[in-house]
């Protein structure tokens, strides 16, 4: 024996039927749909060619980044992409061949497409601060996809300092290999070690 169903009781329906009766429902549904849509499948080099802009502060050739200018970096950058099984990339190189910019492209890709805690290490804390001013700040400011994810440093509680950049889903922490404090207790999903040959041999004797 079944109980009678009241005509006034709500009937099961789609979420759009449930929320379609108030102002802003269409915008909410559009936002919901965008949230369910997977991000485009990009490699780091593809992301760089699409979203990276070089500032005159950081490059002798300002404008859109083009991997074809340093084609030997393509395979290295793409090995840093989430779809690649590589866990560690080691690059032995000469000076001024574009490796740091490739690493900065990886930083931009992480902020935009694969957020998580990231540690970027320069030989010293002073070099980390200089790199932040000359490379990372322009990276963010000149690329709209990144600028909308990292709040300006002048904003209250922005999480944007000289050595730390908060973004949705992650944080970029920059430090020097000479700083035991800067390297301690940093759970990092991604680690970018730059100019490793200049790192101190004994961290215990070189603290910042």
Question: What descriptive keywords fit this protein?
Answer:
alpha/beta; single chain; 5-stranded mixed beta sheet; 208 residues; globular; disordered N terminus; 34% helix; 8 helices
Explain this structure to me?
- The chain has 208 residues and is an alpha/beta fold.
- Helix content is 34%, strand content 13%.
- It has helices at 15-19, 25-36, 44-51, 74-78, 99-113, 125-142, 144-147, 180-183; strands spanning 53-54, 63-64, 117-122, 160-161, 164-167, 170-176, 190-193.
- Strands 4-5-6-3-7 form a 5-stranded mixed sheet. It has a two-stranded antiparallel ribbon with strand order 1-2.
- Strand 4 and strand 5 (164-167) form a beta hairpin.
- It is globular and about 65 Å long.
- The protein starts with 14 loop residues before the first helix and ends in a 15-residue tail after the last strand.
- Mean pLDDT is 84; it is low at 1-7.
Provide a quick synopsis of the model:
The protein is an alpha/beta fold. It has helices at residues 15-19, 25-36, 44-51, 74-78, 99-113, 125-142, 144-147, 180-183; strands spanning 53-54, 63-64, 117-122, 160-161, 164-167, 170-176, 190-193. The chain has eight helices and seven strands, in the order αααββααβααβββαβ.
- Average predicted local confidence, pLDDT: 84
What's the Cα radius of gyration? 23 Å
Strand order of the largest sheet: 4-5-6-3-7
Work out the strand percent.
5-15%
End-to-end Cα distance: 79 Å
**Quaternary form:** single chain
Overall geometry: globular
Low-confidence stretches: 1-7
Helix content: 25-40%
Helical/strand content category: alpha/beta
Along the chain, the helix and strand elements come as: HHHEEHHEHHEEEHE
Total strands: 7
- Discrete helix count: 8
Q: Could you give a short account of the major beta sheet?
A: 5 strands, mixed
Organism: Rhodovulum iodosum
Protein name: Phage terminase large subunit GpA-like protein
InterPro entries: GpA_ATPase, P-loop_NTPase
């Amino acid at each position: 024996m079944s109980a009678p169903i009241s005509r006034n009781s709500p009937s099961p329906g789609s979420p759009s039927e449930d929320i379609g009766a108030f102002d802003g429902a269409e915008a909410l549904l559009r936002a919901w749909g965008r949230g369910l849509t997977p991000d485009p499948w990009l490699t780091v080099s593809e992301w760089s060619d699409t979203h990276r802009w070089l500032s005159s502060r950081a490059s002798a050739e300002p404008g859109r980044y083009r991997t074809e200018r340093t084609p030997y970096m393509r395979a290295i950058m793409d090995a840093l992409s989430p779809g690649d099984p590589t866990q560690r990339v080691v690059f032995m190189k000469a000076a001024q061949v574009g490796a740091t910019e490739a690493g900065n492209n990886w930083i931009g890709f992480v902020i935009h497409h694969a957020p998580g805690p990231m540690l970027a290490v320069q030989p010293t804390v002073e070099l980390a601060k200089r790199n932040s001013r000359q490379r990372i700040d322009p990276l963010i400011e000149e690329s709209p996809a990144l600028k909308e994810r990292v709040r300006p440093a002048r904003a209250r509680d922005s999480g944007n300092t000289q050595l730390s950049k908060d973004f949705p889903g992650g944080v970029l922490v920059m430090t020097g290999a000479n700083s035991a404090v800067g390297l301690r207790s940093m759970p990092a999903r991604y680690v970018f070690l730059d100019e490793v040959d200049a790192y101190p041999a004994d961290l215990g004797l070189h603290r910042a």
